[in-house]
């Protein structure tokens, strides 16, 4: 019988970052590593991660960008506790703050004012779509049970300064939903990349950036290919794991 509180430890950047997460239940995916690798905040930025899970994105961003300040918000108490533990054990509590909070309740007071960048890996599936995972953690992380796409985008806009940026990875099949919600909230889609497993495969994910109060004009960047034909990571993806 599995201990539902059993943890595993993953290491990044030759052991510089150690990430504890539940052995059972929801575990972060490679999408989080992509988002942390593509987000590229400016040196003095304040960054907000909506739905931080075990804190993986703030941990990678803090390692990569030593001058930024990061806030992580998580609606599931177990994850919020794990994220806070990971931050403390990586000695990053002076730069990362974790809040156990429903993002719909967030105000700029929580982050000492509007932020420069919001990152998020929102739940990809509508609450009523597909088989709901019987594991409650996984279900909430993957389906719009507690948080909808609209909630994520509206929270991002509310928390950003004017001209601040929202950066997210989302399922490609709901690209239209994402673009519409961003526009309705006042976040103008500015750049988009499609993420493919290999060359000549259908894109399953998108990386999209929006700008609060931005002018219309969307640039489509080069595709992000995850794997070479031999199954190894491409140079761009491998660089995201390198110290």
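^ Assign residues to that structure.
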């Amino acid at each position: 019988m599995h201990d539902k509180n059993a943890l595993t430890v993953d290491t990044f950047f030759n052991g510089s970052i150690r990430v504890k997460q539940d052995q059972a239940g929801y575990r972060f995916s490679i999408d989080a590593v992509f988002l942390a690798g593509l987000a590229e905040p400016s040196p003095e930025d304040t960054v907000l991660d909506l739905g931080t899970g075990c804190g993986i994105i703030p941990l990678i961003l803090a390692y990569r960008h030593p001058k930024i300040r990061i806030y992580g918000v998580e609606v599931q108490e177990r994850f919020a506790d794990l994220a806070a533990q990971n931050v403390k054990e990586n000695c990053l509590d002076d730069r990362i703050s974790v809040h156990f909070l429903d993002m719909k309740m967030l105000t700029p007071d929580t982050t000492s004012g509007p932020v420069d960048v919001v990152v998020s890996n929102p739940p990809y599936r509508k609450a009523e779509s597909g088989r709901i995972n019987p594991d409650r953690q996984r279900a909430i992380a993957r389906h719009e049970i507690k948080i909808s796409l609209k909630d994520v985008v509206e929270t991002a806009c509310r928390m950003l300064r004017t001209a601040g940026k929202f950066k997210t990875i989302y399922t490609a099949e709901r690209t239209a939903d994402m673009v519409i919600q961003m526009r309705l909230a006042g976040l103008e889609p500015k750049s988009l990349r499609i993420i493919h497993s290999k060359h000549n495969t259908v894109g399953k994910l998108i990386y999209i950036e929006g700008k609060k109060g931005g002018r219309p004009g969307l640039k489509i960047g080069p595709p992000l290919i995850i794997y070479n034909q031999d199954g190894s990571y491409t140079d761009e993806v491998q660089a995201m794991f390198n110290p």
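The chain has one domain: 27-241.
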